[in-house]
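Please check our next protein.
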Amino acid sequence: MNFAGFSLRNLSPKIGSPGSAVIASRFASNEVTFQTRPYKLHKLDSGPASETTLTKEDALDYYRKMQVIRRMETSAGNLYKEKKIRGFCHLYTGQEACAVGMVGAMDKEDAVITAYRCHGWTYLLGSTVLEVIAELTGKISGNVYGKGGSMHMYDKNFFGGNGIVGAQQPLGAGIAFAMKYRKQKNSCFTLYGDGAANQGQLFEATNMAKLWDLPCVFICENNGFGMGTSADRASASTDYYTRGDYVPGIWVDAMDILSVREATRFAKEYCNSGKGPLMMELATYRYSGHSI
């Protein structure tokens, strides 16, 4: 079963675990223990938790947020076809569990910077659906008064929405530097796609982040294609979580929202402990073209 990118397949509790007892007496409990999908680790002795607890409130919250993003993007697609949205329009359809799972583990003072597929992130980090749609259609009531459009939306601790492929990578390292300089116990989550994973500025940014042990999580949302080019045809190595070399990494099945949440918790704790940056690869899939 799959709802808005949230796969329930293989999420059954361990037999004999507290979770299985909760399933049997679900009317007497408000939470269930699930197993996460297996992780792949690079230069780490241990990784995220292999099981996690999900409350009824969180389950409904995650489901609602993913459905809102899905319906918002469907509406954006329809408006684009009606020529009410101009220019490019990159939809997040299929990748909802990445953003919602990450936000489920983040603090309000953590920072996020991403690429141009940013509508869902904009909604999750402070804007209303109407503000996102208004921005897409160039209205003054939009997220940035109709001046940013599809690729340039912002909010507190949300630094975009960047239209240049890979340009957000060194900016993310800079935001993490500011956090360390101010002695904040927060992290900057710097997202990019597999199409931007071969950019030279990524390797420059990870080198600087490791050199200064910055609290930066570099996250590759690997949806399998950079525009229309498959990852296998563009990258000599598609194990993006290992591409930091001396920077530890984690591979995550990002169609499983709970696996994403636990990996994000682990990454945040790792970076905030002063160990420096971490790389995450979120294996996901977009259900629409690169841009409609």
